[in-house]
Amino acid sequence: MSTYRLNNLLAPRSVALVGASARPVSVGRAVLENIHKAEFKGRFGLVNPRHAEIGGVAAVKNLDGLDFVPELVVITAPAREIPGIIDQAGRRGSAGALIVSAGLGHGPGSLHEAAIAAARKYGMRLIGPNCLGIMMPGVSLNASFAAHMPGAGSLALISQSGAIAAGMVDWAAQRGVGFSGIVSIGDQIDVDIADLLDYFAMDHKTRAILLYIESIKDARKFMSAARAAARVKPVVVVKSGRMAQGAKAAATHTGALAGADAVYDAAFRRAGVLRVSDLRELFDCAETLGRVESPTGKRLAILTNGGGIGVLAVDRLVELGGIPATISAEARKTLDAVLPPTWSGANPVDIVGDADASRYAAALEVLLADRDNDAVLVLNVQTAIASAAEIATTVTEIVGKYREQHRRWAKPVLAAWVGADQHIIQALSGAGVPNYPTEDDAVRGFMHLVRHREVVEELSQVPPAMPDTFVPDARGARQIVTAAIADGREWLEPVEIKHLLEAYDIAMVPTYAATDVEQAVAYAKEIFAQGGTVVLKIMSRDIIHKSDVGGVVLNLTTPEAVRAATSDILARARKLRPEARIGGVIVQAMVVKAKARELILGLADDPTFGTVVVFGRGGTAVEIINDKALALPPLDLQLARDLIDRTRVSRLLKAYRDVPAVKQDAVAMVLVKLAQMAADIPEIREFDINPLLADETGVTAVDARVAVGPPQRKFVGSGPANFAVRAYPSQWERRLKLKDDWRIFVRPMRPEDEPTIHEFLRHVTPHDLRLRFFAPMKEFTHEFIARLTQLDYARAMAFIAFDEATGEMVGVVRLHSDSIYESGEYAILLRSDLKGRGLGWALMQLIINYAKSEGLKVISGDVLKENTVMLEMCRQLGFEVKPDPAEPDICDVKLKL
């Protein structure tokens, strides 16, 4: 697993620092002093070959001189010494190392490679190099050179920038916000963002995870970890380089539209990660997520002593997609009784500028009890009439009592005291009330909570591997593409594109390739015979944008006009592009649909995230209009609808004036088909349909361009190697017949299986649960089951078995691969009353076959020695069974594939 040994690094019981310097102003000395100041409770040793003591701490010459084995080795020594230190630590049995030092280099023969090799030899994990360090308040460990140690709390921060991590610590100290952990990852020699997402997602002390990202190395691994984490707790990201453009010049409109930052945005959206634009917004997110749970809806009640600021808050709320809550008739009646007659009578609840603490208390209690809102925002503009500090104290008391009465779940209460003194901020923060400097920040904080709830709901949707509403001719389409590549071509011919679209049931206007004038006239006559008009386009592999050379002529209605236009197009192209290969002209039926909308749909190739689906407003000025949205495939119909809805042109697809609405889901279905085409044919590099005409009758592609080339494998594991997100693997659904003609249906687990899992566990005895989880299990929380059911189908897979006759769940087997996709750890659990009927054997064989298909080299597991039935089955399946040297009650089982 990617969290292998991370607990030893982030919650170690013993630490050694190698390389602390005697110089007062040095990284090594700062790390030593920080470890000392934080009062680390475990064993600590200092290693320095040149000094017997540093800063009053005795030192030994090397790790062998310590009288204990440090779980974590912190390294601030010169780069050249680091591989040797890691090797020595591995021989002693250390779990891992934090490399603060820089300068290891990259590439074959580098110190970077030597350090990795030394660590892998002993199964060590490495954080860094070139990083600020780690700060883990829960175990009083500050192995960093940051200026301050954060207090304990519920936020985790993972940062690619040491400066950003240090800045967050300083901000948190001022706001009373604590952290469950801060990790500066540096160059990610081993432990990366995805590993730490996995770790903090499973950490019960962490309420939310904050990320600062500059770039992502392994997109599929990141998407896997981010999607899993975001399902159980909020994940918020700041990504630098938002204005950077893609590294390569794009040959198609879709390639140009799919700029690097736009793709990151699409990836974060698909992963369920909340993206914020800057550090201030990240701080606001931390303020909100670190203190309250997400609301059940997005209806916000606003309590204020200033009408203007209340209206500004409502404006911002509506702009961001929130809903100003209505005041129920019962609540309004109560407010009339406790407030002066000059109160606003609606939301925002303006209790007038002379409002004192008692008036705030009366109104707040009513709003908290009102079921017509999901959260309350309390605003205060300081006046000379009432004490802002007294009002803040009263609000915190009311909120405290309310939370005490509603321990299972209390609606969020947020606050903004405009121009507040520090002691007011501290009072609100100390009571766990998220507070902000302005009403704008507060509303944004509320919407972050709303967005997280929506994200969790969106992530429960599972896109199918193949939409079942159409069956494409994938084989025929692939033959078209492979033939073009074998011919040394990078672009498909127009007629080939028409056949490619036909294979996926995407309509295109009648299209013919004419090599000379007379052939063009002959094809045109066929179109005229059907009552149509003709458009001519230059046919050249070297002229991608035809209009650049006047290579398009419209509205031709006679053979003579076609003859003259063909001659003109060919002559003009040869004059303007003498080096281009001219193959003739494309003859197409001209589609005239006055009320049709021009759209662009296509595929682009991103160097980090692989294939991206693009949708937007079409035409020749698509880059100028820049009305587009991106998504990572695979897509189902709902995901395609969401993609469309994120553009301005989506509004034009609806009916307006005398223009009927575009046929329902016609455009969305084309997007689903394109995504499936990208999965079936990874040789497609870029794909433009521009324009796609859409109206009440359906959709028709008028022009398209397709770039092809040998597939470039981006991601390990099965499934489309060009997809950063794995599809639901429906191909692994099975029907099995076991002993006594017992018929079982097995399929990959889905997020909506959570209630089924809860019911299944009622049929498993406490003894069997202990054998599975190695400890008595009295309660299974939503968070615990969510982690089991929310799979990415990349590193994690689980098969769930049902009795076909009763529909009841009878067993489950799961596999989680390590971070480098070489080995996987299995687990299996059956209903206790159905054991001994061959189900366990069948599920184990299935997971072994799955691991083989994924290219894993080893399956392993931990089995209690008393679980003799499982151990015997493992031996029969070919597993090697050995006692665990560290745990006498456990056996390690391993199967080489």
Automatic annotation (TrEMBL):
Keywords: ATP-binding, Ligase, Nucleotide-binding, Transferase, Tricarboxylic acid cycle
Every N-acetyltransferase domain range: 744-897
GO BP: tricarboxylic acid cycle
Gene3D superfamilies: 3.40.630.30, ATP-grasp fold, A domain (3.30.1490.20), ATP-grasp fold, B domain (3.30.470.20), NAD(P)-binding Rossmann-like Domain (3.40.50.720), Succinyl-CoA synthetase domains (3.40.50.261)
SMART domains for this protein: CoA_binding (SM00881)
Protein name (database record): Acetyltransferase
Pfam name, any one: Succ_CoA_lig
Alphabetized GO MF terms: acetate-CoA ligase (ADP-forming) activity; acyltransferase activity, transferring groups other than amino-acyl groups; ATP binding
Similarity comment: In the N-terminal section; belongs to the acetate CoA ligase alpha subunit family.
